[in-house]
C-alpha cells in the first residue's frame, strides 16, 4: 500500500477511510518526528495535514517523493505553496463546506460583543440578579454598519447572515467584486466609516498585520473588531493597547498570533470575547471537511486528479 503521513489529528471516520487505501504513519506518535522523517521520509508519497500544523519547511525537505498534500481546512498559509509548485506537489484544501459555520461564528462573536451575553450569563448564574438586581443594559447589535475585510466565500456568507440583523454591509478586498455592496479600496477609510470590522482574509505575508494601529484607531472607541481569519492579520500588540486604552471599543477573537497561546494581557480584558479557534468546529462541519480531505487523497491516488486544489495548484 502507498505510504501516507498524517500531521496532526484526524477523525475516526477519516482514519477508517484512509487506512483502506494507505499505510498511515502518524507523525504525532513519533517521539522524535525529525529523526523518524530522516529514516522514513523517502517512502512517503501523500500527506494529510490541517491548517494549523501545515507542513514545516524541514518536513517538506525530508519528503523527497511527496506527490500530494491534503489540508483539512480552507486556510493553507502553513504550507509553502511556492515550494510545492516547484516540486510539482499537488496541494488541496476544503473550501465552501465550512462557509456557513464560520460565518455563524463571526456573527455570534459580533452579537456577544454588543449584547454582553457572557457577562449577563455570569450575572444570572452567580445569583447576583437576586442579590444585586438587574444586569446593566447592553448595546443593540441591530442596524449596524459592518465592514467585511475579505469578501470571499466566507465573507459573502457573513454578509448574507447579517441581513437578518438589518446591517449595512460594506467591504474591502484586493479586487472589487460584482456585488451590490459598497467597495472601499482603502481599509483605513472603511474602518473609519463602520461600527464593526470583520476580518476574513487568508493569512500569510500579503495580509500580515494589515489591521494595524491606524486601522484600529480609525475603528475607534465605539468600534468592534471581529477576527475569524488568522491571528497574523491583526497586529496583536497594537490590538491589546487599543483595547486597554479605550481607543477600540471591543473585540471578538477566534484566532491569535501564536495559537494556542493567548497573551495574558488579552485574557485580562473584559472588553474582549475569546474563542479557541472553533470557527468551523462543529461535528457536522468537521465531518464534511474530513470527507473532502480524504476524497481529495483517494481521487488523486486513483486518477491523479483532485476535487479542490488550492488556487496555486489549479493548473497542475
Ligand atoms: P476566499 O474565498 O479565498 O476569500 C478570501 C478573501 O480575502 C477574498 O475576498 C480576497 O480578495 C481577500 N484577500 C486576500 N488577500 C487580501 C489582501 N491582501 N487584502 C485584502 N483582501 C484580501 O477564502 P475563504 O474560503 O473565504 O476563507 C478565508 C480565510 O478564512 C481562510 O483562508 C482562513 O484563513 C480563514 N478561516 C478561518 C476559520 C476559523 O476557524 N476561524 C475557518 C475557515 C477559514 P481578492 O479576491 O480580491 O483577492
Ligand atoms: C480549521 C480553519 O480549524 O479552515 C480553516 O482555515 O482555520 C479551520 O477550519 C483549521 O484548518 C485547523 O484544522
Quick recap:
The protein has 316 residues and is an alpha/beta fold. It has helices at residues 12-21, 33-40, 57-61, 81-86, 99-115, 117-126, 128-132, 153-162, 187-193, 213-219, 236-244, 264-268, 283-303, and strands at residues 2-6, 22-26, 44-50, 68-72, 90-92, 145-149, 168-172, 182-183, 196-199, 224-227, 250-253, 272-274. The chain starts with a strand and ends in a 13-residue tail after the last helix.
Overview of the molecule:
The chain is an alpha/beta fold and 316 residues long. Helix content is 38%, strand content 16%. It has 13 helices and twelve strands. It has helices at 12-21, 33-40, 57-61, 81-86, 99-115, 117-126, 128-132, 153-162, 187-193, 213-219, 236-244, 264-268, 283-303, and strands spanning 2-6, 22-26, 44-50, 68-72, 90-92, 145-149, 168-172, 182-183, 196-199, 224-227, 250-253, 272-274. The strands form two sheets. Strands 8-7-6-9-10-11-12 form a seven-stranded parallel beta sheet, sandwiched between helices. Strands 2-1-3-4-5 form a five-stranded parallel beta sheet. Helix 1 packs parallel to helix 13 and helix 9 (187-193) packs parallel to helix 10. The longest helix is centred in the last third of the chain and has 21 residues, at 283-303. 41% of the residues are buried. The structure holds NADP nicotinamide-adenine-dinucleotide phosphate and 2-keto-D-gluconic acid. The site of NADP nicotinamide-adenine-dinucleotide phosphate has 28 residues, from helix 8.
Amino acid at each position: 500500500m502507498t505510504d501516507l503521513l498524517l500531521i496532526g489529528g484526524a477523525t475516526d471516520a477519516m482514519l477508517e477511510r484512509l487506512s483502506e487505501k494507505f499505510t498511515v504513519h502518524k507523525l504525532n506518535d513519533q517521539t522524535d518526528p525529525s529523526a523518524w522523517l530522516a529514516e522514513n521520509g523517502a517512502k512517503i508519497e501523500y500527506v494529510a495535514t490541517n491548517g494549523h500544523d501545515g507542513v514545516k519547511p524541514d518536513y517538506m525537505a525530508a519528503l523527497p517523493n511527496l506527490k500530494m498534500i491534503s489540508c483539512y481546512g480552507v486556510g493553507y498559509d502553513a504550507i509553502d505553496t511556492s515550494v510545492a509548485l516547484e516540486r510539482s506537489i499537488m496541494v488541496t484544501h476544503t473550501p465552501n463546506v465550512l462557509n456557513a459555520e464560520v460565518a455563524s461564528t463571526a456573527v455570534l462573536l459580533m452579537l456577544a460583543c454588543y449584547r454582553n451575553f457572557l457577562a449577563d450569563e455570569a450575572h444570572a448564574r452567580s445569583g447576583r440578579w437576586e442579590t444585586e438586581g438587574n444586569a446593566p443594559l447592553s448595546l443593540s447589535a441591530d442596524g449596524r454598519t459592518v465592514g467585511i475585510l475579505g469578501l470571499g466565500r466566507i465573507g459573502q456568507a457573513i454578509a448574507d447572515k447579517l441581513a437578518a440583523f438589518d446591517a449595512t454591509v460594506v467591504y474591502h478586498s484586493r479586487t472589487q467584486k460584482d456585488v451590490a455592496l459598497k467597495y472601499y479600496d482603502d481599509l483605513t477609510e472603511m474602518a473609519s466609516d463602520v461600527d464593526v470590522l470583520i476580518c476574513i482574509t487568508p493569512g500569510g505575508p500579503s495580509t500580515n498585520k494589515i489591521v494595524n494601529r491606524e486601522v484600529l484607531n480609525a475603528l475607534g472607541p465605539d468600534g468592534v473588531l471581529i477576527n475569524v481569519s488568522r491571528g497574523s492579520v491583526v497586529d496583536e500588540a497594537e490590538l491589546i493597547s487599543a483595547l486597554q486604552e479605550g481607543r477600540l471599543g471591543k473585540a471578538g477573537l477566534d484566532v491569535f498570533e501564536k495559537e494556542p497561546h493567548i497573551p495574558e494581557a488579552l485574557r485580562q480584558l473584559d472588553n474582549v470575547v475569546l474563542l479557541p479557534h472553533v470557527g468551523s468546529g462543529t461535528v457536522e462541519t468537521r465531518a464534511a471537511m474530513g470527507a473532502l480531505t480524504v476524497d481529495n487523497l483517494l481521487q488523486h491516488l486513483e486518477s491523479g486528479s483532485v476535487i479542490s486544489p488550492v488556487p496555486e495548484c489549479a493548473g497542475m
